[in-house]
Design a protein that fits this description.
By secondary structure, this protein is of the alpha/beta class. The protein is 40% helix and 23% strand.
């Protein structure tokens, strides 16, 4: 049987780490890549559950995941976040596909729970993530600091069983996360040489709202869908454009 390691990136996640690790009992090995800035009981709880905890300085998400690839003791590594939960059905599917050797990476769908409700439209489902990786055949794009991109040297497949993603419990949590992501996204665009035009400040958020609310049918999630589409358009349209323009002015 081909073995599978499961890795988790963590920082100050004592309230989530136990539920995360116990949701993937089918793994042959549990690894917690712990941000060295962590100050709570995350490491202690993870170790009590049998996980191997490896502290590592945080530079960006892509670099942290790339480091995690070097820690696996088995041929396959599956990444799960602290706010995600595996299922027995997902475990069975992963165990099956790694024996087939038809791909070197597998995309997994996610069911996103936001503000206490599952969101099925507006780009939130199936929300595929490339998480099951064959060691030695996958690397993370070093230019992507957030919403990291995996580079494979072979074929990728798609799993059917989803991860359950308890994405944002509150509006405050959503806003805090987006404020963090905005600067990272602006850095990526700046390094790519993208410079915003005057009309981009209005056109980009409107384009993003139309894409999510109309084309991706965010309206079907009711008030939740409207609020999410509006907030994403604001942060990834208007705020990212403002941050990008600021970098060009100061650069």
């Amino acid at each position: 049987m081909v073995g599978v390691s499961v890795a988790v990136l963590a920082r100050d996640n004592e309230d989530q780490i136990a539920a995360c690790l116990t949701s993937v009992p089918w793994a042959d090995e549990h690894i917690v890549v712990l941000d060295t800035r962590s100050r709570d009981r995350t490491a202690e709880i993870a170790q009590s559950l049998g996980a191997r905890v490896v502290p590592h300085p945080f530079h960006d998400f892509g670099a942290q995941r790339e480091f995690g690839l070097t820690l696996a003791s088995h041929p396959w590594l599956f990444y799960v976040d602290t706010d995600e939960r595996g299922t027995p059905a997902l475990g069975e599917e992963i165990r099956r596909v790694v024996q087939e050797e038809t791909a070197v990476g597998w995309w997994v769908p996610r069911r996103n729970i936001i503000w206490g409700r599952e969101i099925r439209h507006g780009g939130w489902y199936p929300d595929h993530q490339l998480r099951l990786l064959r060691i030695g055949h996958a690397h993370y794009d070093p230019t992507r600091q957030v919403h990291e991109v995996v580079q494979l040297d072979g074929q990728a497949g798609y799993l059917r069983e989803p991860l359950i993603h308890h994405n944002y419990a509150t509006l405050r949590e959503f806003v805090t996360k987006q404020r963090q992501y905005v600067g990272l996204e602006a850095d990526i665009l700046y390094r790519q040489g993208i410079r915003p035009k005057p009309w981009t400040f209005a056109a980009q958020p409107l384009r993003e709202f139309w894409r999510r609310y109309v084309q991706l049918q965010g309206y079907r999630d009711g008030a939740h869908g409207l609020a999410l589409c509006g907030l994403v358009a604001y942060y990834y349209g208007f705020r990212v454009t403002c941050e990008l323009a600021g970098r060009w002015r100061s650069g």
